[in-house]
Amino acid sequence: MRTDRATAATITLLAAVFAVYFLLPFIGLIDRALDDGRTWDLAHSEQTRKALWLSIWTSTLTVALAIAFGTPVAYLLSRARFPGKPVVDALIDLPIVLPPTVAGVALLTAFGRRGLLGKPIEEWTGETFAFTTVAVIMAQLLVATPFYVRAARSGFDSVDRRLESVAYTLGASRTKTFFRIVLPQMRPAILAGIVLCWARSMGELGATLIFAGNFEGKTQTMPLAIIQAFETSSVGLAGAIALSLVLLAIATVLLVLFRVVTSRGAFQA
Amino acid sequence: MSLAFAASLQLGRFKYEASFEAANEIVVLFGHSGAGKSVTLQLVAGLMKPASGRIAIGDSIAFDSSTGTNVRPQDRHVGYVVQELALFDHMDVSDNVAFGVPAGVDRRARVRELLDLLRIGELGSRKPATLSGGQRQRVALARALARDARVLLLDEPFSALDETLRSTLRRELLRLRAELGLTIVFVTHDLREAHLLADRLAVFDEGRILQFGPREEVFRRPYNRRVAELTGTANIFSATVTETGTDAIGLDIGGAKFSTAAPSFPVVPGSAVDVAIRSDRVNLRRPGEIANAFQAILVEEFAFGTSHGLHFEPETAGPKVEVEIASRPYEVLGVATNPNWLIELPADDLHVMRAT
């Protein structure tokens, strides 16, 4: 009895300590932001607006590209048998476990001005990817797509193959079966993948900084704007706080929306 | 609609080879799991491809290895119901059924007709997850019939249901077969279900059909010891042929003499054979001059509610025998008060098989 009670108390205490540690930074952020009279103006600055807009549209485009290219990859990883599949499977995870800065360096060596593919492209067209908005999307794509592919793959894995078999015997083509049966069945997984991918793109810093640089209006996404505000701006921390607050608000809304959508999905299924 | 099936294939170490046919009847594929029953349905449906063989559904050839014909599952027009039913959970009942209705047919009318046929007309707007087990079965059957399939492949569809519901659905299936003139291939490992539903029975074992024939023939005249075991024959004896005649032969079972009809295969005096008799075909007799009988003692008994299972051992000569007797004759005969009986193995029911 006594040891049981002690165990329960220990568990509660550990959880409470963690909860405080977890919440305190966010409380601190909000507290400082509310205290500081400049927050509202800083959050509304031209630079913030540009950075936020760039972050949102590049992340959204990244998600669209991840869906277009990642879904077939996820499908093949789940359904097809081919030589070297375990290797491909592991490689997909590489950007998840690698520091994003490494991804940035790697992108530079491939698509940079002197890169493997970047050099011939520049010689041929006179154009280069590095330090452009395209580079922002490329960095996000490399770092964030694996999250979508993982989620979509587990979604494909979770669909009962017999549903497809039965659909075929009911006269449905493979295409019809895919769109009417398989995709709806894996909707929660796809949604999770989209949210994870979008959030990761929004938060992408390291690879973007190295491959795309930090140019206001062109490659300066929100995380880069926060770094710049923190390091160089005359207002110092206040600017970083204001920008962080904007991202925190977006992340919170996104999480709540995601919960609502997926729980409704679960109810329907 | 008729179905003619012959196929063989090799799946890793699993060798499969089977053939049977069905026409406006229920053919039950019976056997343990892994015996090849479900594979058979998938081959018929076109979800698996045989290495060789020929599958004809009605007048159309679905598969023929000699001509390279292999019609895809979409065009085979068979209804397929799997054990877990595979209902589309994200669609309501009507949409599940409508999924199979061919283009050009009035969908709403067809769905209504099918739901009414299966007596679930009021469930159209419900999601499968909110239905009971029996209702889900009916949805799966309605969907399988949506393409006007006249061949239904049912893979242990009732196995997850309780006994009352199963018997209701079996009756329903018999009604559908009669109303629609269906050919049904029904997979089960449940002996009672096989007995209740089968017009003809195919006994599967290790990828092969050991015996295919009318239900009673398979149950009463198993091809060999394995079929007898699989179909629940309690009494299987090793015996020696003592004499042979044109119609009848004499047998020695455990030192006692019996006679029975001559088997379809040749035997000579001294031939070793296996002999089977179902426990419900054995008679308990009072002492007297009775052929094909031996004196035995009741050593063990079990009550099954409607019947009793009795285990007898021979007094001097004869085999150990299991007898199943209904409760009423059990009481009338006074089995409980008298352990000594003359056990009669009627010649008509004593079935001789090749020794294995």
Please give the radius of gyration of chain A in angstroms: 23 Å
How many helical elements of chain A?
13
Q: Write down the CATH class of the largest domain in chain B.
A: Alpha Beta
* Protein chain pair with the most extensive contact, residues per chain: A-B, 19 and 28 residues
Main sheet overview of chain A: none
- Count the E strands of chain B: 21
Q: Which class do the helix and strand fractions of chain B yield?
A: alpha+beta
* Radius of gyration of chain B from CA coordinates: 24 Å
Report the strand count of chain A.
0
Relevant terms:
heterodimer; A: 269 residues; mainly alpha; MetI-like fold; 13 helices; globular; B: 356 residues; alpha+beta; Rossmann fold; OB fold (Dihydrolipoamide Acetyltransferase, E2P); 2 domains; six-stranded mixed beta sheet; five-stranded antiparallel beta sheet; 9 helices; 21 strands; 23% helix
Description:
The complex is a heterodimer of chains A (269) and B (356). Chain A has 2 domains: 1-35; 47-268, MetI-like (MetI-like fold, Orthogonal Bundle), CATH 1.10.3720.10. In chain A, helix 4 packs across helix 7 (133-158), helix 5 crosses helix 7 (133-158) and helix 10 packs antiparallel against helix 13 (237-268). Chain A has 269 residues and is mostly helical. Chain A contains 13 helices and no strands. Chain B folds into 2 domains: 2-225, P-loop containing nucleotide triphosphate hydrolases (Rossmann fold, 3-Layer(aba) Sandwich), CATH 3.40.50.300; 238-354, Beta Barrel (OB fold (Dihydrolipoamide Acetyltransferase, E2P)), CATH 2.40.50. The interface between A and B is medium-sized, with 19 and 28 residues.
Overview in brief:
The complex is a heterodimer of chains A (269) and B (356). With 269 residues, chain A is mainly alpha-helical.
Secondary-structure blueprint of this entry?
The complex is a heterodimer of chains A (269) and B (356).
Chain A: H1 2-35, H2 39-43, H3 46-79, H4 85-97, H5 100-111, H6 118-125, H7 133-158, H8 161-169, H9 174-185, H10 187-203, H11 206-211, H12 222-231, H13 237-268
Chain B: E1 2-11, E2 14-23, E3 26-30, H1 37-45, E4 52-57, E5 60-64, E6 69-70, E7 78-81, H2 93-98, H3 107-117, H4 133-144, E8 151-155, H5 163-180, E9 183-188, H6 191-197, E10 200-205, E11 208-214, H7 215-220, H8 225-230, E12 235-244, E13 248-253, E14 256-261, E15 272-277, E16 283-285, E17 293-303, E18 307-314, E19 321-326, H9 327-333, E20 340-344, E21 351-354
Parallel strand pairs in B: 3-9, 3-10, 7-8, 8-9
Antiparallel strand pairs in B: 1-2, 1-4, 4-5, 5-6, 10-11, 12-13, 12-15, 13-14, 15-21, 16-20, 17-18, 17-20, 18-19
Helix pairs in contact in B: 3-4
